[in-house]
Amino acid sequence: MATKLMSSSSIACLFLVGALLQVVSAVDYDVGGDFGWNLPPNPTFFSDWTRNKTFFVGDKLVFRSKSSESHDVAEPERQTDLDGCVKPGITLSTSAVLSISLDSPRRRYFICTIGNHCNAGMKFSVDVFVNPNSALLPPPPPSSASSLRFGAVLAAAMAGLFFLLTI
Ligand SMILES: [Cu+2]
Predict the structure, then answer these.
(1) According to the model, what pLDDT value does residue 157 have?
(2) Cys-Cys crosslink for 140: which of 9, 11, 51, 144, Cβ 3.0 to 4.6 Å?
(3) Helical (H) or strand (E) element with 12
(4) Mean pLDDT for each 10-residue chunk of the chain (167 residues)?
(5) What are the residues whose beta carbon lies below 5 Å from ligand 1 (ion)?
(6) How far is the CA of 94 from the centre of ligand 1 (A)?
(7) CATH (domain of 30)
(8) pLDDT at residue 25, rounded to an integer
């Protein structure tokens, strides 16, 4: 009986720890999903890909291109440059795989500068947010009390489970 109780609460505890790790761990996003950073089937392909995703500081964008296609990654500074496919002076990489860390909370713009690729749809922007649930980052401004509340609830849940494990 006691063994059964312990094992089920152990499992619950593992689930909780798993959920917690998922909340605070960074995500590596393959840009364009399985399609990769290649000439898209339509001009809105990459902006469609960013939709319904929330990017947090610490996440990474991984640009993977087919070896049969030639692409690069450049980072314009403004929306108008993204819209007009204005090529910045610096190209970040021309290699087939490029990983970019989203290191601060701001909007970032990415294009391919090869040929007409940007106009064909190889461009998108992402809004990068501070993850309110991450304990690894500096505390958010005082106004956002929700993350503190989340932490308190989590701590209480952990304490409860720990209690169950020890009886
Ligand atoms: Cu390209």
Answers:
(1) 54
(2) 144
(3) helix 2-24
(4) 51 49 78 97 97 96 93 96 93 85 97 96 98 65 50 53 53
(5) 71, 112, 114, 117, 122
(6) 9
(7) 2.60.40.420
(8) 82
- Measure 155 CA to ligand 1 centroid, in angstroms: 48
- Looking at residue 75, the DSSP 8-state letter turns out to be -
Domain count within the chain: 1
**Cα gap 61→73, rounded to integer Å:** 11
Amino acid 96: pLDDT: 84
- Full residue range of the structural domain in which residue 107 is found: 2-133+141-166
Nearest Cα residue to 55 out of 90, 122, 100, 85: 100
CB 64 within 8 A of CB 30: yes
Residues in CB range of 57: below 8 A, 6 or more apart:
102, 103, 104, 105, 128, 129, 130, 131, 134, 137
Give distance in angstroms: CA of 85 to centre of ligand 1.
12
Element (H, E) at 128: strand 123-129
Q: Is the dihedral of CA 39, 41, 43, 45 positive or negative?
A: negative
Ligand 1 center to 101 CA (angstroms): 20
The alpha carbon of 84 and the centre of ligand 1 are apart by a number of angstroms equal to 15
SS3 47: helix
Residue with tokens 């059964």: 4
